[in-house]
Design a protein that fits this description.
Number of helices: 9
Strand order of the largest sheet: 2-3-1-4-5
Structural class: alpha/beta
CATH superfamily: P-loop containing nucleotide triphosphate hydrolases
Largest sheet: 5 strands, parallel
Helix content: 40-55%
Radius of gyration: 17 Å
Bound molecules: adenosine-5'-diphosphate, thymidine-5'-diphosphate
Strand content: 5-15%
Length: 213
C-alpha cells in the first residue's frame, strides 16, 4: 500500500453495547492512523457540537424527565443531524479522517431492536438525518452483556439503567443489523485490548484496500 493510499481519509464509527471498550479502542486506533499520516478528528454521537452535548445531557443524565421511545429516537437523530452538518461533513470535505464513538447503527439497535420502534421508521428517519453521510467502516465490538455490564460502575446513565436484559436485546439487534448495514466489521471484544486492536487495524487496512481499488 502506498502512503497516499494508506492516508486516504476515512469515516469510521465504533459501536457495541455499553462497556464494550469503544473509547479504549478508538484512542489506540487514533495513534495508529496518525502515525500513518491521517489527520484525525474525534467525535461522539450524541454530542460533540454544543447543541448535541445539550441533547446528550438530556438523553442520558436527566433521568427525572420521562421520554417516550419516539421522543428519544428523534432526539438522538437531532443530535446526529447537527453533528453531521457541523463536524463530520466538513471534516471529510477537508480530507480529514473521522473516528466517531457511535452513529446511526446505535439508533437502530437501541431504539429499534431493543426499545421496539419500527425498524423501517428508524431507517427512514435515519436516512433523512445523515443526508448521505455514512461511515466507510463501522467497528462493531461484540461481547456478552454479562461481561460488559460489570465494567460500567455504579453511576448508570438512562440507557445503562435499562439493565442487562435490555443490553441483551441491543446486542442481538447489533448482530442482526451487521448483516444488512453497510461495511460492518464484527470484532470479538471478549479478547484482550491488544488483540482487539490488531483485529480492528486489520479491518481498517482491508477497507482502505477496497476503497483504493
Ligand atoms: N478488552 C478489554 N478487556 C477488559 N477490560 C476492558 C477491555 N477494553 C476496555 N476495558 C475496560 O472496560 C471499561 C469500559 O471501556 P470503554 O473503552 O470506556 O468502553 P465504552 O467506551 O464502550 O463504554 C474501562 O474500564 C476499560 O478499561
Ligand atoms: C447514538 C446513540 C446512542 N445511544 C445510547 C447508547 C449509550 O447507552 C449512550 C451513549 O453512551 P456511550 O457512547 O456509550 O458513552 P459513554 O461511554 O460515555 O457512556 O447512548 C442510543 O440509545 N441511541 C443512539 O442513537
Amino acid at each position: 500500500m502506498t502512503n497516499t493510499q494508506s492516508a486516504r481519509p476515512l469515516f469510521i464509527s465504533f459501536d457495541g453495547i455499553d462497556g464494550a471498550g469503544k473509547s479504549t479502542q478508538r484512542d489506540l486506533l487514533t495513534q495508529w492512523l496518525t502515525d500513518m499520516g491521517h489527520e484525525v478528528v474525534l467525535c461522539r454521537d450524541p454530542g460533540t457540537t454544543e447543541a448535541g452535548e445539550r441533547i446528550r445531557d438530556l438523553l442520558l443524565h436527566r433521568k427525572e424527565l420521562e421520554l417516550h421511545p419516539r421522543t428519544e429516537m428523534l432526539l438522538y437523530m437531532a443530535a446526529r443531524a447537527q453533528l453531521v452538518d457541523d463536524v463530520i461533513r466538513p471534516a471529510i470535505a477537508s480530507g480529514k479522517t473521522v473516528l466517531c464513538d457511535r452513529f446511526l447503527l446505535a439508533n437502530i439497535a437501541y431504539q429499534g431492536h431493543a426499545s421496539g420502534i419500527d425498524l423501517e421508521d428508524v431507517r427512514s428517519v435515519g436516512k433523512f438525518t445523515v443526508d448521505h453521510v455514512m461511515p466507510d467502516l463501522t467497528i462493531l465490538l461484540d461481547l456478552p452483556e454479562d461481561v460488559a455490564f460489570p465494567r460500567l460502575g455504579k453511576n448508570l446513565d438512562r440507557m445503562e439503567a435499562k439493565g442487562v436484559a435490555f443490553m441483551h436485546r441491543v446486542r442481538e439487534g447489533f448482530l442482526k443489523e451487521a448483516e444488512v448495514y453497510p461495511h460492518v466489521a464484527v470484532i470479538d471484544a471478549t479478547q484482550d485490548i491488544e488483540t482487539i486492536q490488531s483485529a480492528i487495524r486489520g479491518a481498517v487496512s482491508k477497507r482502505l484496500e477496497e476503497l483504493a481499488k
